[in-house]
């Protein structure tokens, strides 16, 4: 059984989400399934299609 690729993030949602630390826009990394805040140096995971916007859950870049 093959894994189903994740659905792309809704562009409408991406336009509205900002980094909770810096309030700056985020970049969607489809391959890593993360929302990246260059300003904060953090990458927020997307789990089961849901962005996890908690700084303590983010990966440091």
Write a brief caption for the model.
Pfam families: Trm112p. The chain is mainly beta. The protein contains one helix and five strands.
Secondary structure blueprint with pairings:
Elements: H1 11-16, E1 27-29, E2 34-37, E3 42-47, E4 50-51, E5 59-60
Antiparallel strand pairs: 1-2, 2-3, 3-4, 3-5
InterPro entries: Trm112-like
Pfam families: Trm112p (PF03966)
Protein name: UPF0434 protein AVM11_03160
Spell out the key features of this protein:
single chain, 61 residues, mainly beta, globular, Trm112-like
Ranges where pLDDT stays below 50 over 5 or more residues in a row are none
Largest sheet: 5 strands, antiparallel
Strand content: 25-35%
Q: Could you spell the SSE succession in H and E letters? A: HEEEEE
Tell me, rounded to a whole number, the average pLDDT: 93
The helical percent reads under 10%
How many distinct beta strands? Answer: 5
Shape: globular
Straight-line distance between termini: 33 Å
Number of helices: 1
Q: Could you explain the architecture of this structure?
A:
InterPro entries: Trm112-like. Pfam families: Trm112p. One of its GO terms (cellular component) is cytosol. The structure is a single chain. The protein contains one helix and five strands; from the N terminus they run H-E-E-E-E-E. The chain has one helix spanning 11-16; strands at 27-29, 34-37, 42-47, 50-51, 59-60. Strands 1, 2, 3, 4 and 5 form a five-stranded antiparallel β-sheet that branches. The longest helix has 6 residues, at 11-16. The mean pLDDT is 93.
